[in-house]
Inverse folding.
């Protein structure tokens, strides 16, 4: 039914397209700002402005599509500061954004001590905006916020994320715009840690990975490279594996990856701009209680910034320069 007709049946838009803002209480999630959106077609998305505008839960018809780690939601003030402290605040979620100064393992590069996967996912948003309008006859919500990576003597890079959801559609788009507002060229490392989980992910699921080439990251991963796409039941012990993929792209440079589960009647597809995110990592972690597949578009290798600098994959952002990453996420039965 066209929304112009639907309007005659409702008193408030929340009946068919709900946007709710609230603050979490209790434990290490205390004070975290959250935004829930229900599109009215079965998709529900939870956005955490205090965690880089990342996506904590994505559901379709009440079924979760992503992995949630034992840490749960951790507010920025409780995040560990050690080089590997990222793990103690990694809640999983549908998306955890990594960068801007480092992705992958922590360490030192040119005198800077860098945390595992950087500090971006623990950065709260400023200038948060939630705006619901009717665009071309369709109720639409635009949610945006600004994350700043600023340190005296090291530079100032801003990231603006804008998420767009529409009534009646089980898909959404988001755009990340990175701008160097400082006066020195800075490394820019980005990794989008999409985490597939149960019930979408089980041993009956199938990866959507149109790959031209598979490269194991470690010797352990190399031992199982022929089974990179094989999804097994949870087991323990299970040692994680990572594989680099050269994902196929269309004529516009857009690539699509995902996961489908015919038995659960669930599927997710993620479309991204491979011209900007020219690397891709598959994270395979099928341990008991740690059961996840990571689909991770990125712009460099993941053995730390010093290694990326040496192998030539490290990207830079000059003063005044900007980089834009565009995504579309679709869920289906």
């Amino acid at each position: 039914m066209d929304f112009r007709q639907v309007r005659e049946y409702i008193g408030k838009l929340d009946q068919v397209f709900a946007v709710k803002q609230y603050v979490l209480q209790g434990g290490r999630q205390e004070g975290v700002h959250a935004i829930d959106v229900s599109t009215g077609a079965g998709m529900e998305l939870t956005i955490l402005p205090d965690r880089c505008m990342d996506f904590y839960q994505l559901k379709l018809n009440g079924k979760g599509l992503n992995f949630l780690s034992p840490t749960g939601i951790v507010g920025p003030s409780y995040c560990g500061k050690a080089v590997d402290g990222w793990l103690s605040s990694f809640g999983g979620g549908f998306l955890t954004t990594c960068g801007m100064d480092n992705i992958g393992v922590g360490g030192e590069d040119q005198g800077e001590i860098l945390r595992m996967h950087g500090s971006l996912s623990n950065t709260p948003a400023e200038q948060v905006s939630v705006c619901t309008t009717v665009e071309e006859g369709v109720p639409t919500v635009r949610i945006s916020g600004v994350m700043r990576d600023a340190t005296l003597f090291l530079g100032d890079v801003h990231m603006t994320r804008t998420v767009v959801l529409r009534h009646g559609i089980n898909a959404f788009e988001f755009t990340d715009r990175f701008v160097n507002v400082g006066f020195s060229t800075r490394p820019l490392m980005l990794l989008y840690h999409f985490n597939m989980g149960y019930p979408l992910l089980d041993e009956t699921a199938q990866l959507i990975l149109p790959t031209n080439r598979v490269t194991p990251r470690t010797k352990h991963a190399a031992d199982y490279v022929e089974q990179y796409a094989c999804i097994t039941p949870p087991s323990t012990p299970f040692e994680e594996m990572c594989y680099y993929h050269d994902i196929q792209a269309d004529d516009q440079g857009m690539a699509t990856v995902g996961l489908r589960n015919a038995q659960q009647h669930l599927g997710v597809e993620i479309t991204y701009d491979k011209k900007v995110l020219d690397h891709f990592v598959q994270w395979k972690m099928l341990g008991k209680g740690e059961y996840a597949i990571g689909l991770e578009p990125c712009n460099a290798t993941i053995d730390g910034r010093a290694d990326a600098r040496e192998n030539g994959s490290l990207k830079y952002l000059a003063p005044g320069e900007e980089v834009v990453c565009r995504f579309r996420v679709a869920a289906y039965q």
